[in-house]
Each structure stands twice: as structure tokens, then as C-alpha cells.
């Protein structure tokens, strides 16, 4: 999301810069009735003819509202953090990319026999939680949890990081 | 900052769009839905005060362009500000009696290179990128580390602290570690214990890009 916002901001900045300059130049040339950069007369005639109940105006309004709504939803949605913080009490706090944490936990779970391990990290960067899904035999939960905790310890994760396991039993054919 | 900005823009666009729809459907009692977007009253008002209106329009245009420049600068600015300048040491220091006189210049790049090389001395660190910002008296240190996929982060933090201590002894500058970002690029040649799943492979492909200072932001959620 941060990258998306950055790109959007660059586009907005360029639009403001170019739009502002064009507006100032147009107003400047309009003082002497000189021709400007844009077809002023055509745009004026269009705005004078466009009625509020016309399909064109309603369509423009609907598109503007939809863009606004999409932007709001995107901004207010709780996206997973790009990176998470290690234990503050262990010294210099370090940021680790979320994908790296997820991969490390996947690999740790796979080493103790979990198949199709898929870890997801959610929450806030300084207080995150972890969910591990995968396929494992009955009675493996404790070993998997221990392996995950050990890996989190090597990653210097906060000791109270919430870990949830959602392990499925292997299907009969796969046993 | 970007998130707040785009939340405000989203809210303004939504409000404008909804108001337009309400006006178009005749729901607003004070707006005639059959009127034009640009009414005769608006045109008359503009023509009555044409020169001041044009002057205001020019001012608004310049203001918008300046806002664009400011926004562009804030988006493209490097995190933490500019790197520290080259350091200059005079000998003797003020009031110190000595027969030897001279001065020493230490290039900012040399300081960066030295710290990066020291950090890369640990086998867990594949690549280090540092940036010292602020003044030479109170520099801030931003660190990006690409480490091995099995790195022990606690050990890594200890290595970083010791490297900063060594840097302080050598340069006489004690930087404040303001930001450390660690990335673990996945090697295609997995270790003997790894059991790659299809998902892990997909993640590996996604994250194989090496860590670079430009490619990383300095803190989340800001």
C-alpha cells in the first residue's frame, strides 16, 4: 500500500504542478484575450451547455464518487504490515520484512513435517500475530508449535507474539 | 502522511461525486437540476470583476504548482535527510600546546564504506548499506542488511552494536542507530534441511530481489 500511495502522490504532484501552471498561463493570456494553451472557448461552451440532470454530468459525478469511495476503502482497509519489529527489550529494534518472517516460519514448520505450510503475519508492525496453516499428522501440534516458537526466538520476535496453528489432517490417499 | 492525504482526497471526491448526483437527480431543494454547470449568474459575477478574478486565478494556479513541487519533493526526498558532510579535524585542538600542526579530512563516503565493510564481516551479512545523516555531532544511522536466510537476528543485533562501537572508537563519532531493516533474500540453492513447498517457491520468487537502500522505506505505517 505504501508503494501505491507513493506512486499516487507522484502522479498527483505532477498533475498539480502542470495543472497549476496551465491555469496561471491561461488566466494570464486571458487578460489580453490572447490564445492560450487549451481551447478555452470550447470548454466554456461545454460548461454552459452541460445541465446537471444530463447523463454526461451524472456519469462524471458517479465516476468521481466511485473513485473517492475506492480511495477511501483502500486507505482505511487494514493491510498486513510490510515489515514487523523485533523485540524492543532485546536492544536495538530491528525491522524485518513480513515476507521474510513468513518464509522462515514456513521453512521451520516444514522441517518438522508440516506439508504445504503457509504462515501469515497480521496486526500492527510493533505488535503482530502469526497464523500457520498446513497439513500435519495427529499429535504433531506441540512439535510444530515448539518449532515455530524456536524460529520466532531466532528472529528475536516479541516473546508474547500470538501464534495460532490451523493444521489439517492429511487426506486418506496422502497418508 | 500519504495515507492521510489520500484519505482526505478520497473523502473530498466521494462528497463531490455524491453532491453532483444529488443535484443531478433534483434531491437538493436549493439547486435546480435543469440548470447548467456554469450558470449565467456565475458568468455575470466573473465579468463584473474580471481583472481581480483573473489575478486570483493566476495566484491559485501558482499556488497549486508550488504545492505540486512541495509534494513531489517530499515524496522523492531520501529518508532521514542528506548524508553527513565530510569531517574536518584540526590539530592541535584549541588551547592544546603542541609543536605539530595540521588538519585531517575524513570523507563522508569513507565513513560509510568503513562501516559497511565492518558489518559485512559477519558471515550472516551478505550485504550492508548504511547512511549517516544529520550533523557530525549527532549523526543518525540508517542500516539496511541483506542477511542469510537462516540468520539469527539476536546475534545480528549484537554484531551491529559492536560494529557501531568500533566505528565510534575509530571515527570519534557516536551515531544514534535510528533505523535497522533486515531482509532475507531466498537463495535458490536451498539447504539440506529445507523442504520447499509450492508456496515457499512462489514466495522465494517474489522476494529474490536483493535489499537496496533505495528499495526500502525506513519505517512502517508512516
Structure in words:
The complex is a heterodimer of chains A (175) and B (222). Chain A has 175 residues and is an alpha+beta fold. Chain A has five helices and five strands. In chain A, helix 5 links the parallel strand 4 and strand 5. In chain A, helix 4 packs across helix 5 (141-154). The longest helix of chain A is centred in the N-terminal third of the chain and has 30 residues, at 2-31. The radius of gyration of chain A is 28 Å and the shape is elongated. Residues 188-222 of chain B have low confidence and may be disordered. Chain B has helices at residues 2-24, 40-48, 50-76, 108-119, 153-171, 198-206, and strands at residues 87-91, 102-106, 125-133, 140-147, 176-183. In chain B, helix 4 packs antiparallel against helix 5 (153-171). The chains are: A alpha+beta (175), B alpha+beta (222). Chains A and B meet through helix 1, helix 2, helix 3, strand 1 and strand 2 of A and helix 1, helix 3, helix 5, strand 5 and helix 6 of B. Strand 2 of chain A pairs parallel with strand 5 of chain B, so a sheet runs across the interface.
Please report the number of helical segments of chain A. Answer: 5
CATH architecture of the largest domain in chain A: 2-Layer Sandwich
The percentage helix of chain A is: 40-55%
Which consecutive residue ranges of chain B, at least 5 long each, have pLDDT under 50?
188-222
Q: Give the overall shape of chain B.
A: elongated
Main-sheet strand order of chain B equals 3-4-5
Shape annotation of chain A: elongated
Helicity level of chain B: 40-55%
Any idea how many domains of chain A? 2
- Assess the beta-strand content of chain B as a share of residues: 15-25%
Termini Cα gap of chain B:
6 Å
The strand count of chain B comes to 5
Q: How many strands, what sense, and barrel or not for the largest sheet of chain A?
A: 3 strands, mixed
Name given to the CATH homologous superfamily of the largest domain in chain A: Cation efflux protein, cytoplasmic domain
Ranges of chain A where pLDDT stays below 50 over 5 or more residues in a row are none
β-strand percent of chain A reads 15-25%
From the alpha carbons, calculate the radius of gyration of chain A and give it in angstroms: 28 Å
* Assembly of the depicted chains: heterodimer
